[in-house]
Amino acid sequence: MKKILILIFIEIFIFSFSQKKMDNVAFKNSAEVFTIPGLSQSTSIDCGNSKMIFLSGQVPLDKTGNLVGNDVENQTRQVFKNIESILKEHGATGRDIVKLGIFITDISKTSDFRKIRDLYINLQNPPVSSLVEVSRLFRDDVLIEVEATAVIKNK
């Protein structure tokens, strides 16, 4: 009986998220953030009473693709400006972030990251997060990349 229930749950899960009908999913690129061809900056999913917004990893590039900052603090500031720009287009802000994924090339600079991050998130209910030190990001001069997930109420 337990195996049957598990199989039924798996089938419902797969059917619910199959790409045959994805009317509740929207892919978007922001005019305010540098966009790489073949990559969506964000995806939103209409969950009924709320909307869940997933952001691609944001790096410290301005909207023309120029690197902003040569240290973690200044690069983090640009990353969160990019995140805020994308969220704004969905009707959200950094205070709506529920999950962060942080990739940093020097874990000893975590306090520099947190100092800027704390200006953008809800400190009373901070998002869950993962912080991973990486040996390199897509360019040698990029020191940090941040993924974000936000949830807002539907209007």
UniProtKB/TrEMBL annotation:
GO molecular function, one term: deaminase activity
Pfam families given in the database record: Ribonuc_L-PSP
SUPFAM superfamilies in UniProt: YjgF-like (SSF55298)
Gene Ontology CC: cytosol
Gene3D superfamilies: RutC-like (3.30.1330.40)
Entry's family note: Belongs to the RutC family.
PANTHER family linked: 2-IMINOBUTANOATE/2-IMINOPROPANOATE DEAMINASE RIDA (PTHR11803), PROTEIN HMF1-RELATED (PTHR11803:SF58)
Protein name per UniProt: Enamine deaminase RidA, house cleaning of reactive enamine intermediates, YjgF/YER057c/UK114 family
Species annotation: Chryseobacterium shigense
